[in-house]
Amino acid sequence: MSSIFAGLAQPDVIARYEPVIGLEVHVQLATATKIFCSCPTSFGAPPNTNVCPVCLGLPGALPVLSRHSVELAVKAALALNCAIRPKSRFARKNYFYPDLPKGYQISQYDEPLAEHGWVEIAVEGAVKRIGITRVHMEDDAGKSIHDGFRDSDRYSYVDLNRCGTPLIEIVTEPDIRSSEEAYAFLTELKQVLQFIDVSTCDMEKGHLRCDANVSVRRWNAERFGTKAEVKNLNSFRFLKQALDYEIARQVAVVEGGGAVEQETRLFNPDTGETAGMRSKEHAHDYRYFPEPDLVPLRISERWLGEIRAALPELPARKRERFLRDYGLREYDVQVLTATHAVAEYFEKVAAVSGDPRASANWVIGDLMGLLKAAGKEIADSPVSAENLGELLALIARGEISGKLAKEILPKMFASGEPAAGIIEREGLRQISDSGALEKIVDQVLAASPKQVEQFRSGKTAVLGYLVGQVMKATRGQANPAAVNELFKQKLS
Amino acid sequence: MNIPSLTIGRVREGLGKKEFSARELAEEALRHAAEENPKTNAYLHFSPERALAAAARVDEKLARGEDPGPLAGVPVAVKDVIVTRGVKTTCGSRLLAEYVPPYDATAVIRLEQAGGIIIGKTNCDEFAMGSSNENSAFGPVRNPVDPERVPGGSSGGSAAAVAQGTAVVALGSDTGGSVRQPASFCGVVGVTPTYGRVSRYGLVAFASSLDHIGPFSRTVRDSAVLLRAIAGRDPLDSTSAAAPVPDYAGLMDGGVKGLRVGVPREYLKDLASETAGLIERGIEALRGQGCEIKEISLPSTDYSVACYYIIATAEASSNLARYDGVRYTGRSANSETLSEMYRNSRGEGFGLECKRRIMLGTYVLSHGYYDAYYLKAQKVRALIARDFAAAFEQVDAIVGPVSPFPAFKLGEKIDDPLEMYLSDIYTLTGSLAGIPCMSVPCGRTAQGLPVGMQIMTNHFDEGRMFRLAAAVEGGVPPVTPGAAQPLP
Question: How far apart are CA A82 and CA A304, in angstroms?
Fold first, then answer.
């Protein structure tokens, strides 16, 4: 019987060691077509239908690099603060596998697209910089399906739809020191890449895949320990689980007087354990060499400048600015900077309404509630940012009450109309005109002698009742502040 | 109509004068080729449906008074490493014995757009690896000049088809001499254009950085016309060149007076005397027509064989990985595991020469050996290119032999791969430099064996190369097609 606690070091022992972690993250670029041919990248097509001679690796077919893939890869590399090489080169990574129809992957090796970047994460309130060694481009392989078929005991099936899907591989420096830091790094990375529309980073669809190089050493040791590569960390939870397991396993090995083996290990999500997959002796020799079917990739200064100029403000910057300029709460800032679309929407609402805090509340509360119920993304919101801003401006100008606005918004959401049209048609405009209100206030006072008596005898809480009567008479359209003021004048 | 006597120009004239229709010509060419093929085994299979459909399109265009294209009605043979939609493409390999590609090579599309009629696919060394055509899984090709002798390789079938007169022109592929050497052995014209001049899309890769598609013909003019039809930038091949394609046949005329022609001293030092004598006669013919002949040096020539067989095998080991029994290739029966399936399918499928080159290539790319072999070879390749660049500062063209010897006998050298590799020395340097090279017939030995002269010019200077070839062609007796005897 295996238990996740078998052969693992206890926390007090683990604490005597420093884990050293580097991540290799594969990200699927959000292009409509594949990296070396014009087949669609769409997910879920019937097996082996999104294919052509090029991505099938048929004899004689040749790759042609897609410009859009390069553009997205450069965008990602810039957002990760990398230096883009003016000239990079593709290389063949040779290995045999049934879902790799060419017998090699077209990747980049000694001349990658970009190098020397960094990402900042928050660690116990401080900012820590995780180095990015390199960002390179490559094509994805197909999918082998080993079970689920009647004859799966004898055959494996291969679906080559995914073959040639553009990927970038992001390799970090061994700067990560705990599973929490790894988690924070991947979270930040995912947000940045989503923010700049480079990838959906949908882990369930395999758009973001993560491997980790893990070693442990005594605190203050000079040299790194021997590392193991842990594969198949395909959710945030698995990443943390696998790293914690692997750190505890390695510490136990060292504590037991053994040596950590250099090997590739596979994380098993069912048991939460990592298990040896390939030893160093059996490591692949990929026999990299420059891809002769492609010319070197040259990125001109001009193109680089265009991509850089089109890059939006990145999440970290935006968070700082929202906190500082809008005076929002930390939590609200997190929500409002989660994606580029949300941040952009919010800023437009704030600009039109002139009230950032109210804008934050309405976007996070009412609007997101409506979107969630309708299963829509903010980019497809029937209520435009301008229209929501206008609605909030009407409240600010006292033309409608907040309560009324809460009734109007769902109608705007249903019809896509601006607030003004709905208010006009349904006669909902707030009555602020003191002449009109005074008449109603007088009527309420005349009809409520008992409450007037009570108020005068000091029970000021009865004012709420009186205001309520006015609201009732005006079907909610009276400006509550103005009504309050009038009552106070009349009763003093 | 007499198929062996045809040229592109003669076909054009015949169609124009309505002596025959494209369909009649195609039918006769198919019949004639099938009848002659047992003598040489030049064709692996014929493509009558495709040929007749193409001929019908030419006849329709003629009937409508439209230009049917520069190759209208011309029967063409295509080496079986160039993919043809719906027509088997075996690469001379058992692994692809039944492979029918679903798409056409760009050169094939252009050939047919120009009115060419593909009558069949020609035999070759397996995956274009070889210098004698003895490495075909479907039997060797016999040289039409002497059926006891090899036609050269790897494009032996295309050279033999043209020499035998069953096709007017043919397409071959050249990686280290696979067009020029068989052209020389069979006594026809064979052209390796500048690397990037003709799209490689649809040419089954042997060594991608060295692979070229090139024409065969009986006259220099026909190769010039064929090259123009298939050359030019192709968006499907990133390594194809955007340089404009001139009218090569038009550039042929005008004479060679005043052209500076270099003869590399490294090319003549170890040459068999009879071949050397014929090449020297060719050089004298050029001098006689006003060329200025200069001795030059290409000092890195000695390293070209080693350099080539590292780069070419390295790329081949990767290019041939896809023939693994998983998809279109033949799959070995009786395999229990995935690795057994790989090993058995490849072990049973590949011939000896392919295996040898895959192993060499795998070795030179292996961890720890890359720098010593592949990287070093790339540096030598740059030196060879520099030799040529320096030479072309002094001369307009370089001439020399294609092969150290004329066609040898079947079986004579097949057991000595090293000697076979070494005999590629004169063709490899030009391939490594990526410059245009060709073989033009330059006379026959006392035994009647053809010898070709190699002409090389600077990148994209095919025009001057053809002009010099025409001058050599005019100075030596032409080849008589159809000289082959039936196989015993």
Answer: 12
